[in-house]
Amino acid sequence: MKIALVGATGNVAGRALEKLVQAGARTVALVRHPEKLPESLRSRVQVEQGSLEDGAFVARATRAADALLWLTPTTFDARDFRAHTLDLARNAARALQENTIQRVVFVSSHGADRSGLGHVSFAGEVEQVLEAAAPHTVVLRSAGFMENLFTSVEALKHGQLFTLLPPDKKYPLVATRDVGDVAARWLLDSTWTGHHVRGVHGAEDLSAHDLAGILERVLGTPMRCQQVPPEAIRDAFLKRGMSPSVADAYAGMFKAFAQKDYRPTEPRTPETTTPTTFESFVRERLAPRLR
Ligand SMILES: NC(=O)c1ccc[n+]([C@@H]2O[C@H](COP(=O)([O-])OP(=O)(O)OC[C@H]3O[C@@H](n4cnc5c(N)ncnc54)[C@H](OP(=O)(O)O)[C@@H]3O)[C@@H](O)[C@H]2O)c1
Q: Which atom from ligand 1 is nearest to the alpha carbon of 123?
């Protein structure tokens, strides 16, 4: 069995690749920058260099693959974020059909089944493109990533946790390694058939106040939780270098997630609950960046 992965120099697919190699699977990684792959993996993986924007490259690089791990890389400068996302998905669909790839695992998000949630809704459209192009698919409707906090290291060093969501409302939160592990399990299994949707929810639902409490306890410093008003979100994203289309998509997602009655469609179950706690993430991954 040969498994193709995109995004393998990133968080989720990087972890999945590590697991697949450990399991002895034949893998091909579609990457723009092979030097970013860990040296320990580089010689054990077929590396194909190119961009997902190049449909011919995606089709060529996935030849003879039995399964594909697909995700939509975030592109901050996309002029039309939805069109860009769907262009990439169509490149995946072309490769799936030309190479008759049987199985696809797609890293999606909770909320992807609804409209009006910016790029999360675009992920829902990608789900449909992939489901139409391959006989067996699973979409992993993931919780928000703990790693998102890496963009807030400077504020955290100053004892401030900014949140775009209501600070007392609990949301699922997952470490990307858990998502990578779930993806690897699906990719290594060649017995499942049909189209599946799975939540990936981390160890527990937490509010921003819960996060601040855990950060205080683990880091041993005070942490003040502060909500960023919704009207400031779009401007903050533009200042971070996002195109207006990408900023609108992110702002739309946060506004929808912040609604009082918003809940992921997929309920938390023992199957969607994954092992890494926020406390262990802070100890092992975040705290070293705050020193
Ligand atoms: N953040 C969240 O809370 C959250 C929640 C649910 C779902 N998701 C989804 O999870 C997915 C995976 O996230 P992640 O954290 O693993 O992503 P990541 O760490 O940002 O990795 C993205 C990867 O895509 C590669 N890439 C970017 N543009 C590319 C292109 N044009 N051609 C080929 N490769 C390209 C990057 O490689 P180089 O830049 O090195 O080339 C990198 O390896 C995303 O699609 C996101 O939508 C995120």
A: 47
- Residue 261: how many other CB atoms lie within 10 Å: 4
Does any ligand 1 atom lie closer than 6 A to the CB of residue 37? Answer: no
Q: What are 52-96's pLDDT values in tens digits? A: 999 999 999 999 999 999 999 989 999 999 999 999 999 999 999
Q: How many beta carbons lie within 10 A of that of residue 176, not counting itself?
A: 23
**Ligand 1 neighbour 121 (Cβ under 6 A):** no
Of 241, 236, 232, the closest CA to residue 75 belongs to 241
CATH of residue 102 = 3.40.50.720
CA 275 to chain centre: 17
Q: What is the mean pLDDT of residues 238-242?
A: 93
Q: Report the C-alpha gap between 101 and 29 in whole angstroms.
A: 15
Could you give the number of structural domains in the chain?
1
